[in-house]
Amino acid sequence: MLNELPGGLATSPAPADAQRVLAGWWSRVAAFLIDWLVLIVAIVLIEAIARVVQSTVVIVVLFVGWAFAALIGYWVYFEGSASGQTPGKHALGIRVRGVGGGRASYGQALGRNLLRDLMAIFWPVGIANYLWPLWDRKNQCLHDKAASTIVVRYTP
User: Fold this and answer.
1) pTM of the model
2) Which of 23, 72, 88, 144 could form a disulfide linkage to 140, CB 3.0–4.6 angstroms apart?
3) Residue 110's beta-bridge partner residues?
């Protein structure tokens, strides 16, 4: 669908209207694993700093900061950004969008990730959540459905 300018001029489709190809399950899993690898490297660096500093207070602050960043901040920051891509999603050429195809808000990214983490606590629900895209026509996890988000392939 072309956008129409005043005077009847047509433009190319807006990015939200561009062809949306839903991301496959394997690319989502691989991106998730890459992101956890990034977070594990961060915890290894923090652990190395903790060995040098040898201060209990500093160690606790670093680990609590990492836990918050790893569980919430990292995912929300990247998925709520204009690109909608964590480093793992960028490497696999996929991104998080709102169901309409536009940018997912930071609120959607927060809700999506909080729900994902809460479901993971109850492992049978967490497993069902991660496997849900295998039979869902929009390839959505349950946390995507709740946050009104989709994961799409991205081609610049």
Assistant:
1) 0.80
2) 144
3) none
What is the average pLDDT across 62-79? 88
How far apart are the C-alpha atoms of 147 and 48, rounded to whole Å? 37
The answer to whether 104 and 98 have CB atoms below 8 angstroms apart is yes
Give residue-wise pLDDT tens across range 85-113.
999 999 999 999 999 989 999 999 999 99
Residue 94 identity (one-letter amino acid): I
Question: Running DSSP on this structure, what letter comes out for residue 36?
Answer: H
Q: Calculate the alpha carbon distances from 131 to 19, 28, 40, 135, 155 in Å.
A: 25, 11, 24, 8, 25
Q: For the beta carbon of residue 112, count every other beta carbon within 10 angstroms.
A: 24
Q: Give the range among 45-49, 101-105, 123-127, 144-148 with minimum mean pLDDT.
A: 45-49
Reading the block at residue 71, the tokens are: 């569980």
Amino acid in position 144: D
The three-point CA angle 114-129-99 to 5° equals 70
